[in-house]
Specification:
Layout (H helix, E strand, L loop, with lengths): L3 H9 L11 H12 L8 E8 L2 E8 L7 E5 L9 H15 L2 E5 L11 H17 L4 E6 L1 H15 L7 E5 L19 H9 L22 E6 L5 H13 L4 E6 L13 H17 L6
Parallel strand pairs: 3-4, 3-5, 5-6, 6-7, 7-8
Antiparallel strand pairs: 1-2, 2-4
Amino acid sequence: MPSREMQAFLDASPDKGGPDRRPIEEQRRSLDAFMSTYPLPEGIREADCEVGGCPGQKYTPIDGAIDRGVLYLHGGGYTVGSVAGWRGFLGHLARHIDGVVMAIDYRLAPEHPYPAAVKDSVGAFLEIAHYMGHDRLMIAGDSAGGGLALATMLALKQIGADQPACATLLSPATDLTDAGGAARFEADDHQAKSKLYAAETPPHNPGISPIYGDLAGLPPLLIHVAKDEAMFPDSTRLADRATSAGVSVDLHAFDDAFHVFQIFTDLPESGEALAEIGRFFRTKIPMGGD
């Protein structure tokens, strides 16, 4: 049974009937304003940072480890979203992993279509890995950011770079093609945003739809998805393909939840999901490298 808070959220959630046709800048301001209502938790230091040429933020528990961490890529259909909007969630994530969380404001479409976001995330990962160690890092993201995290690992593989120790993908958007179910989004704005991101690049390109990439050699994956959401097929197909490629996969499909519920940190279910992410992280990246 869902918590009282989750049920209230589900009951209040509007059923979107079409694309958001407001100007992109207005959409960005609106989302950031909404998400800013989720405050940074106590005991977390926040600092500006720049990694791989991208501006971002660094979140560190006051008494937490500084020798292990997460590179986080926010969601928003590659066109909206920001680290500032996700700061409350990122602070909670830092607390649950007991480590550093670094999140970047990768370039967004339509001003910067593919491959700008992938270049930014690869550059950020390589810089953090240089001083922290690739085996002390998890890459993570939600929705489009989850797809971007997967595309980043494929890009690292392509250039012969080391992979992160593990990855957490929250309702990842892994397939932006019609064959993969993009028709699911005809009634909302996801498909429109996907087209802005892809621009002239064919949507089957693994940089855009990473489920079509060679997944062999990727690190252990934790995938969260709600059973009732549009991204459910993306997550289950990814889990199947990755497992077939020899990748260790933990897939948690949640009942009575919604797309990327984890970022709404006032929900009890969010705390439970974050605790699971923390356990996964600490299992794959023990304290002090033990």
